[in-house]
């Protein structure tokens, strides 16, 4: 790939070329084969386009930094194929891509179905913790626990072949791409934008889904104008696999009846979307009226008198990304009138300025921070920043090397206490859940 070129996605088409295109987006850890049972019926009315996430199903391992990045790659892939308008159905992470498309490129979407989706998937801490586990233990613990997240107990027991297929699907995913997808979900939060979704939308969820269940589905329906809800009984998170017939029927009915036509001009001609994706147009406003003669407009505020941008918002964002929402929330809850100024100082200066500087990446800053904390004997803070180092991408072996280096330059007694603290934190953070 040439520098600056958008990566494309691994894909396949099924169905006659003359039919309108319907895209099926996969869940994290799955491949396009999760939709196999829907394809025969859907291809009677649509040309079905399926894609794999980066590093999934043998796709090139080019990690995506965000859900928006995945949407951009999907559009780049479609552009190369001459597909400008389509229906879209996505499961979980695939559903997040669908929401992103509806918010950023509504002119491309004719209709939308969100399956096992949410405007915010759990908490950022949960997904970054999953990344720590994968970075330390590989994908095997996540793969072995996948059936518990994806299927009801009865289905998993009755369908051992499908259960094993699910485990192997996760095991064969590229770990780096899986971790990047976890980071993408950690930063995904479109709750404030749901009211801007103007595409006919079906929200579909399994009644037994413990990952993104009926409560999350109702949040989507409440936020998206005129969205409809469908709850599939006896299904968990990977509902298209567990209840394929019910999901297929719901998708056929939705896309058959809620396919939004292209807008027309005042002359009745259909407006075709441009070859390249376009941002949503701003709402039309009335033309400005002529100003009264000799009216004096307020003088603009000179740029030089405006103060520097406030770094608090940047600081709190970086602080949460590095230390985790739960830790920062505990600090803020304990903040009172006496400590408020200190917390403002730390957030603005340490996190909004120093940690956000581009000169060092976060892995390197974690190495420096751990060493400084060992030298100062600040073991409580060392525990916090050992967790942060794992979230920033350091492995336990790399943290060990940092502490060995610190032992030479900071002293063995200081490093001895640091090893005890770090060992406990690493055990807690990297042990897969039962």
Automatic annotation (TrEMBL):
It comes from the Bacteria. The keyword Acetylation does not apply. This is 4-carboxymuconolactone decarboxylase. Residues 20-129 form the AB hydrolase-1 domain. Keywords: Lyase. Its EC number is 4.1.1.44. It holds the Pfam family Abhydrolase_1. The keyword Lyase applies. The gene is pcaC. One of its GO terms (molecular function) is 4-carboxymuconolactone decarboxylase activity. Residues 341-423 form the Carboxymuconolactone decarboxylase-like domain. InterPro entries: 4CMD/NDH-1_regulator (IPR052512), AB_hydrolase_1 (IPR000073), AB_hydrolase_fold (IPR029058), AhpD-like (IPR029032), CMD-like (IPR003779), Decarb_PcaC (IPR012788).
